[in-house]
Amino acid sequence: METKNQEIVNVALIYIKDGEEARFEEYKKKGGAILEKYDGKIERIIKPTMLAKGDLELPNEIHFARYPSIEVFNKFNEDPEFIKIRNEYAIPALKDISIFTSRNTDFKFKKETGDKRKTYGVAFIYFNEGEQFAKQFAEYHDDVCEIMPEFGTHFERFIAPFQSKGTIEQPDEIHRFYFDSMEGLQQMGTDERMKALFPKRDASLKNLYFFIGEASL
């Protein structure tokens, strides 16, 4: 997929040291207040409860923060007050963090907005080398998007990282969606139409991390 428009979505996989949860909560509160001065917003915080696909240590939180543009994103990260708060609260509290700065893709979908009562899915998608595999995955995705709403799956974000920091490899795409129920998610996984499409997905990808969790924001 191609990227589009000025909006930036920053995605962070966050690993918090044991006993430092309160310090990190203070960082979120203070850092979020500064972010709002730049017309940015913490859009969604997911607390993963399981990794349904892939092999990766489960993060404590996955953050999605929205910025009007890359220029605003850079100014925020260079803000002296924010740097002070990050150094005082975030850095001592974190065991590890991987950050992916992303733009919206050109994928056309009905964007919906969930809430904290919903179960969420976050997919980190890595294509096999070669344009044919990205095209193959896009075809798979178009097909499953016709089926998934039947099982109460709703799409919130389809973004493409263009820069990253941390130990986790930068994915080609990050998808975020939510489910009306875990029962619907389980039924979707056993649907014969979906099962027939999974080999096409698997053949197009070199890796996939699929997190399931709850929203705290």
- The coarse silhouette is globular
Structural class by SSE content:
alpha+beta
First-to-last CA distance: 28 Å
Q: How would you sum up the major sheet?
A: 8 strands, antiparallel, barrel
Mean pLDDT: 94
Question: In total, how many beta strands?
Answer: 8
Strand content: 35-45%
* Number of helical elements: 6
The Rg value, from CA coordinates, equals: 18 Å
Order of helices and strands: EHEEHHEEHEEHHE
Strands in their spatial order, largest beta sheet: 1-3-2-8-5-7-6-4
Q: What helical percentage do the residues reach? A: 25-40%
Comma- or semicolon-separated keywords:
217 residues; alpha+beta; 36% helix; globular
Provide structural commentary.
- With 217 residues, the chain is α+β, with helices and mostly antiparallel strands.
- Helix content is 36%, strand content 40%.
- It is globular and about 55 Å long.
